[in-house]
Amino acid sequence: MKELIILCNGEPPSKQLLQKYISSAGFLIAADGGGNIALDMDIRPDVVIGDLDSFRTDQSHPFKVIQQADQETNDLEKALSLAYEKGAANVYILGATGQRLDHTLKNLSVLKQFNEQFNKLYMIDNFGTIQLLPSVFDQKIAVGSQISLFPLSGKVTGITTSGLKYPLRDEALENGVRDGSSNEVIDNPVQITYRQGDLLLFVADA
Known about the structure:
Number of helices: 4
Domain Thiamin pyrophosphokinase thiamin-binding: 128-200
CATH superfamily of the largest domain: Thiamin pyrophosphokinase, catalytic domain
Shape: elongated
Structural class: alpha/beta
Largest sheet: 10 strands, mixed
Strand order of the largest sheet: 4-3-2-1-5-6-7-14-9-12
Number of domains: 2
Order of helices and strands: EHEHEEHEHEEEEEEEEE
GO molecular function: thiamine diphosphokinase activity
Mean pLDDT: 93
Distance between the termini: 30 Å
EC number: 2.7.6.2
Helix content: 10-25%
CATH class of the largest domain: Alpha Beta
Pfam families: TPK_B1_binding, TPK_catalytic
Strand content: 25-35%
Number of strands: 14
Oligomer: single chain
CATH architecture of the largest domain: 3-Layer(aba) Sandwich
Radius of gyration: 18 Å
CATH topology of the largest domain: Rossmann fold
Protein name: Thiamine diphosphokinase
């Protein structure tokens, strides 16, 4: 299985956005209450997995429902473990942001935890796309796109960029000190390199 979607129980994506990724990936794992979001949009997940404290289980469903009561992992971790077992290379996570801030922060931590297990691991909402960057990033992004760089855990050092309106030249970003929010793509390809740390890239939808 090359591509797979996970739908979480945060701020629901638009139906159009969800269907866009379903049309390309095809397989949908709903993380607990994400199953309710899918069904409310008349979209059937292939699997619902989680501790099932949110998913409506008062009716039968024509898809697999997996209950894992383990409270040491959250529902996104359970869904990503299942995606890994299924051999997914690229995973697109929707509905993982918004609503409770602690859940969003936890899901960003999970993004780091599972990043090395997939070729691509993106977190997507109605406003844009978040990914944890490799130490060397070289990709085309539409000129005029608004982007932000954030250190996920502490400090990221040795950051050098090209293709951005406000370049960095062997500089550092650090939580509570300096971040790289609200930059703009002015040329392609966008190149970002860094030496140490965990660097998040957010690309806003046009």
